[in-house]
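Now for a sample.
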Amino acid sequence: MANLNKVMVIGNLTRDPEIKYTPKGSAIADIALAINRNYTTDQGEKREETTYVDVVLYGRLAEIAGEYLKKGRPVYIEGRLKLDTWDDKQTGQKRSKMRVVGESLQLLGGRESGGGGGGYNGGGDHEEADRPMRRPPQRTEASRPPSTKPPVDPDLDVEHDDIPF
């Protein structure tokens, strides 16, 4: 049987990223997202519920989060679910927490909030990537290919946009 562990979330940071470094120098960032859901009850009452999700980022993704993300910023994260378990030092009980391990992120929002839609794919588990986050070069009018209209079908006398299917 096939297995799938894929998460895609968009939310706002509830706090500034917490950046830590391993003894070998790899960055680890802990962030938390607030994800809102608006809905209407059967009685017509509008409601909003908020789900809080903890996310961990590694390597270059963690560094990007530390540099560009701040409390309140919207962000899109793709990753996978991971269950962390540990023994509580005070009570000795087993504890667990479900988190998202971020494998790629995309900054959302306008430039005034420091974003602009830049994205980065982390490239894997705890993998240190050396690729900087870049935007594709903007095309100028001179570099755009000339627009050519597709050939018209003489047997069809209606535009493609007018076909209802």
In short: Strands lie at 7-13, 18-21, 27-40, 46-58, 74-87, 94-107, 119-121. The radius of gyration is 22 Å.
